[in-house]
Amino acid sequence: MIRTSVSNCPVPTEQQPLNEYEELKNSWFFRHTTSSWRNYLTKIFWIWGWSWLVAGPVTAASFPPQKHIVHFILCGSAAASVMVVLVLVRLYLGWFYVRDRLDNATVFYEESGWYDGQTWTKPLEVITRDRLIVTYEIKPILQRLQITFAALAFMYLTGTIIWHLN
Predict the structure, then answer these.
(1) Cβ atoms within 10 A of the Cβ of 66, count?
(2) What CA–CA distance (Å, rounded) separates 148 from 145?
(3) What percent of the chain has pLDDT over 90?
(4) Among 24, 36, 59, 144, fewest CB within 10 Å belongs to which?
């Protein structure tokens, strides 16, 4: 983990935007968004598949698979994807927060608690470094998440059309 800090930086180490970025990138929950598309989609499908453990029985109570197989599949898929949406929202908010912290020219930090917040203005070299990280590391992750949201919206729309055709 990179623990570089500017020598005149008063921001505590764990609140420095670069270190927050490194922590997020290396955490087990957020790390999958930085991997290849294949690994990323595999994780998304795993979440969706495991969500069927709850969605399947609930959907079967309303649409018995023996009688309404299409409605069962569509409703179960939509219900299982709710967990995927929740996970994607959490991923997006985490990366968006770190992006904002890196992109801003000033850093708000707390010295010892919520009541003594301070602001530090980044030197030009730190601003440049942080904005390069935003441009080349974080924006592609946010775009990947946006594409995933768009794909889910398209699947919901397709499922709605199929639902009404049956």
Answers:
(1) 8
(2) 5
(3) 86
(4) 36
pLDDT tens per residue, range 91-149: 999 999 999 999 999 999 987 766 778 899 999 999 999 999 999 999 999 999 999 99
Flag whether the pTM goes above 0.85: yes
User: For the chain, how many residues are written?
Assistant: 166
Contacts 24+ apart (CB under 8 A), 1-8: 1/26, 6/123, 6/126, 8/123
The secondary structure element, H or E, covering residue 108 is: strand 106-110
Query: Rounded to whole angstroms, how far apart are CA atoms 47 and 81?
Result: 8
Sole residue written with tokens 């994807």: 81
Q: What's the token pair of residue 36?
A: 């290849």
